[in-house]
Amino acid sequence: MNSRLTALLIVFSVGILSAQNKKWTLQECVEYALEHNITIQQSELDLKDAEVNKLDAKGNFLPSINAQASHSWNIGLNQNVTTGILENLTTMFTSGGVGMNVDLYNGLQNVNRLRRSNLALLANQYRLDNMKDDISLAVANGYLQILFNRENLVVAKAQYAVTEQDLKRTTELVESGVVARGDLLEIEATAATQLQQIVNSENNLRLSKIALAQLLLINDYENFDVANEEFNIQPTTILNNSPSEIFAKAVTQRNEIKFAEANIELAETDIELAKGALYPRLSGFYNYNTRASYQDIIGGFEIDPNNPTTQIGTVEGTGQAVVAPNRRPIVEAMDPFIYQLGVNDGHSFGVGLNIPILNGFSARNSVKRNRINLERSKLQLDQAKLDLENVINQAWNDAQAAIKAHEAAQKTLDARRLAYDYSKERFDVGLMNAFDFSQAQSRLDNAQAEVIRTKFDYIFRVKVLEFYFGLPIELK
Q1: Backbone dihedral region for residue 319 (phi beyond 0: left; psi -120 to 50: alpha; all else: beta)
Q2: Would you state the pLDDT for residue 229?
Q3: How far apart are CA 240 and CA 445, in angstroms?
Q4: Using CA atoms, how far apart are residues 133 and 181, in angstroms rounded to an integer?
């Protein structure tokens, strides 16, 4: 039993350790962000709401059918329908019916509502896709920032390792009296500066991980990390295209442009929908009603055997009484409930025409208001195209500048490395003091850091251009 429990604990611990040591790839980061981002989840709810609105628009084509039923008690002084005498009675009455109404013509408003719901659904999808694109680009930027800071830290530690060797050798030379103590102090100062750079690099790496984790809505900052992969500049043909060529393709497939175009179609549909309120409305109706009473009924009349006649007057002059048969009602029990429903039912059907004549100008003003909204939507499309063109031009210029900056930084690094090697040879034989040697090393450190910065800057700029050109965000 104990061995089984121990085995389970080991498996559980290994599972936790594996989760904590997970290294996230860019694809995993993007997929996780798209699944858990709150803004995207809200937009997905808007999309579901648009789908419900489409069902409403379809339902407008169906007739409206409603049923009603009532059962009432009447307590108090009422006329007895059997005897005709006012009495304190409790009577019951049941009624029910079904009514149906259907629009035969309403200015094509139902047609336009359905068209509008389809456009709204499409517009919400474009907006959701655009949000996903923005999130993907932000994740890629955060991911590259981590890689940049990580590589920067590796270089800083490598530089410090070289300085440690120089420090150890210089210490031995100082102790043997070959080199002045000032040279040792200079190298110690260089080592301290590099240690500070390592601390700063570690802090920057930690902050970039936290930033990406927050973007992914991951709370375990300490254990969050990305995959240990080395990314180098890859050949690309994207820069062979001019900004105008990239824009010409982007404008046909970018979701923000599609969203703006869908808004124009929505505005045009809203105008037609508003115009429909100016036209007559023709509707058809059908109603069925029935009722039942719980009171006794009069089945006929008979001569009262106890008082067969009754005086109704006298003959003028003779005083002779004028009599008539004294009839009394024959009270019968109420008809069966189902029978009453069958004989008391009724039908009504017909058509109704509603012609708008004067409604405070609300219908006409609605048309004018939607025409203004159409012009506003057209301007928003123009602005979206202008913004996209500006972004692409800026991204293209940034990419061109980034590759040139990287090439220049690489040449500078090669030159600084040769200068450092030459300075080290002179320093090792005592022909260069420690201050000049530390300056040569500092210039090499700066050149290496600049190569790293320009490399990742170029990678991101190119990915932005490829993103607008319709290529997926991938790092190789």
Answers
A1: left
A2: 67
A3: 34
A4: 60
Sequence spans of domains, the chain: 22-62+106-279+364-476, 69-105+281-295+333-355, 297-332
Whole-model pTM: value is: 0.73
Averaged pLDDT score across all residues of the chain: 82
* Second CATH level (architecture) for the domain 22-62+106-279+364-476: Up-down Bundle (1.20)
Give me the pLDDT at residue 445, please: 80
Question: For the residues 398-411, what does the mean pLDDT come to?
Answer: 88
Q: What one-letter code names the amino acid at 63?
A: P
β-bridge mates for residue 68, sequence order: 97
Q: Rounded to whole angstroms, how far apart are CA atoms 96 and 290? A: 6
Q: pLDDT tens digits for 34-61?
A: 999 888 999 999 999 999 999 999 998 9
Residue among 414, 451, 412, 428 at smallest CA distance from 187:
428
User: Does residue 315 sit in helix, strand or coil?
Assistant: coil
Q: How far apart are CA 105 and CA 283, in angstroms?
A: 7
Please identify which residue in the block is written with the tokens 């220049």. 408
> pLDDT by residue (tens digit) across 132-185?
988 988 898 898 888 888 888 888 888 888 778 777 877 776 777 666 677 677
Residue with tokens 């008539």: 324
Rounded to an integer, what distance in angstroms lies between the CA atom of residue 195 and that of residue 186?
14
Question: Using an 8 Å Cβ cutoff, are 193 and 445 in contact?
Answer: no
Does residue 72 surpass a pLDDT of 60? Answer: yes
